[in-house]
Structure formats: structure tokens, C-alpha cells
Design brief:
Strand content: under 5%
Number of domains: 1
Order of helices and strands: HHHHHHHH
Number of helices: 8
Helix content: 55-70%
Radius of gyration: 19 Å
Oligomer: single chain
Shape: globular
């Protein structure tokens, strides 16, 4: 009699030579606990920054948005480090901050980009969502050359680095202690897409699926 089929196994760590440190295994629920801490911490810190600057967080200036975005990056990064520290002293390579071969990096980046544009292009053609993200405008990209430079740095450097560190380096890694690659990437992609919701009602929700797909693909590339 054949044994019953088993569900896909989570991340399997290969045997390493004697003396080579194995990466830590974080409990899967650390992902959601760290996200909750990061989210609530961002609300608190954002409120404090708004109070100090004397602005309304719901109708804030680009300066406030830039400062609050940097604070959010720090808070979420700190949340990941705090929970990782419960298992072992965190090191950069635990979060994926380690070198890889140029060929492998280029290959998976190209595959991810091609897949994302294929999916997002098809989705835009079929759904035609009547909404777009206003991140660059909120960061002051339309206020002049300086605002454009600052917004570009935030969109192309600060936000991507912070998101990769938390969502792929910690959130996804923690999920892999329990879930298969596909399910961990699906969960990560869903949460990654949801946090980009701009609050524009149904139209705002319609632009999230491509971002969820992007989050999924980034997890696959990370692995």
C-alpha cells in the first residue's frame, strides 16, 4: 500500500561543511508578529512626526511624507531585527544580504521583470483600472528639480531596499519555515500588495493585483 501523499515541504536547508554556520529558522508566525509591530509602530511614529511638524497626516506636505517614509523603513527594519534576535543574533546574511553570482542575479532579475510586465500588461488590457499610485506626487516630484530628485531616491532606493529587507529577507524567510515556496510567496505577495492600497475605493483595489504578482515574483527570485 502506497503511503499517503504529503503536502509540499517548507524550506529545506542543505548539509553544510563542518564549521559552516547554518542560517536561523524563524517561526512562521514571526512574520505576522513583526508586520503587526512594524505597522503599529509606523502609525505611532508617523503621528509623533506630524505633531512635531504641526501637520495633518491626512493632508501632509511632501516633507512630512519623505520623513514619514524613511521612518517607516526604519521601523519595519527594526521590527524584523527584533524578532530575528529572539532566535539568534541577527547578521546581514540571515536576511539575504550576501553576494551571488552576476549571471544568476541577471537571469532571475530578467525572468522576474519579463513575467511582471507580461502579467501586468495583460491585466491592464483586460481590466483597465481607472487609478494610479500617487506616491511620486505625494513625495513632491512635481514641486521642482529638488523634489524630483528626492522622490526618485525614495522610490528607487529607500523604499525598495526597506521592502526587500523586510518582506523578502524576513517575512518570506519566516513563512518558509512552515510553507512551501509557492504558498509562502503567495502570502507574502498578498500582504505586499495590500500595504500599497492608497484608499481610493474600488479603483484603488484594482491596481493591487499586479503588485501582488510582483511580490510573488520577488520571493521566487529571492529563493
Amino acid at each position: 500500500m502506497e503511503p499517503p501523499a504529503t503536502s509540499p515541504v517548507p524550506l529545506e536547508l542543505p548539509e553544510r561543511p563542518e564549521g559552516v554556520e547554518r542560517p536561523p529558522v524563524w517561526p512562521w508566525w514571526f512574520a505576522f508578529a513583526a508586520f503587526g509591530l512594524g505597522f503599529s509602530g509606523t502609525l505611532v511614529v508617523g503621528g509623533l512626526i506630524a505633531a512635531i511638524l504641526g501637520v495633518d497626516p491626512n493632508d501632509a506636505s511632501p516633507a512630512y511624507v519623505v520623513i514619514a517614509t524613511c521612518a517607516q523603513a526604519v521601523v519595519f527594519g527594526a521590527s524584523a531585527v527584533v524578532f530575528a534576535g529572539f532566535v539568534r543574533k541577527p547578521r546581514p546574511w540571515h536576511f539575504g544580504l550576501c553576494p551571488t553570482s552576476l549571471g544568476r542575479g541577471v537571469k532571475w532579475a530578467a525572468i522576474g521583470i519579463a513575467a511582471f510586465y507580461l502579467v501586468s500588461g495583460t491585466y491592464a488590457y483586460l481590466v483597465s483600472p481607472d487609478a494610479h499610485q500617487k506616491v511620486t506626487e505625494e513625495l513632491g516630484a512635481d514641486t521642482g528639480a529638488f523634489g524630483l530628485i528626492v522622490a526618485g531616491l525614495m522610490v528607487m532606493l529607500v523604499a525598495p531596499v526597506a521592502e526587500e529587507f523586510f518582506f523578502r529577507g524576513f517575512f518570506f524567510r519566516a513563512l518558509r519555515s512552515k510553507f512551501s515556496l509557492v504558498w509562502a510567496a503567495v502570502i507574502d505577495g498578498f500582504v505586499f500588495g495590500i500595504i500599497h492600497y492608497s484608499g481610493d475605493g474600488l479603483d484603488g483595489l484594482l491596481i493591487l493585483p499586479p503588485l501582488m504578482v510582483l511580490g510573488f515574483l520577488l520571493c521566487v527570485a529571492y529563493e
